Each structure stands twice: as C-alpha cells, then as structure tokens.
Amino acid sequence: xxxxxxxxxxxWLLSGIALILFVLLHSGKGTGLSDIIAxxxxxxxxxxxxxxxxxxxxxxxxxxxxxxxxxxxMIIYPQGTVSPRG
Length: 86
What we know:
The chain has 86 residues and is mostly helical. It contains three helices and no strands. The chain has helices at residues 3-25, 33-38, 50-76. Helix 1 packs antiparallel against helix 3. The longest helix is centred in the last third of the chain and has 27 residues, at 50-76. The two termini are 16 Å apart.
C-alpha cells in the first residue's frame, strides 16, 4: 500500500467516526446529548444557540472531508482495479 492511500484511508475513517459522533450530538427537540452536556449555555430566546451553530459547522466540515476523501479513493481505485489477494 502506498503512503498516500494509507493517509487517505486514515482521514476517511476518522472523518466517518467524527461525523457519526457529531450527528449523534445534535439535539432533537431538546432531548439530545448536546442538551445534557451544555444545557446551561442555551438561550431559548434566540432560536439556535452558539453551541448548536458550532456543532452544525463542525458536522458540515466532517461531512465535506468524508465526501472528499471518498471521492479521492474512488479516483485512486476506480471500479475493477483492486484485485483480491488469494
């Protein structure tokens, strides 16, 4: 395996795990993990809190990184170029 492939696979894996984690941290009608962790910081009069907006930004960044690394892997190894070892 080339070092580039190993690097892209590691970034892809870490961004996928982070994406799952940050999606689970989003609150759904005030009952999510983000409400438990930072419930005192929320301000109900403004609609969305600073914590929720930052969580949204981090989730979008993780999703973009995941998507770009996935596209990179698709370009490096198009369909049919990787043969199984046997």
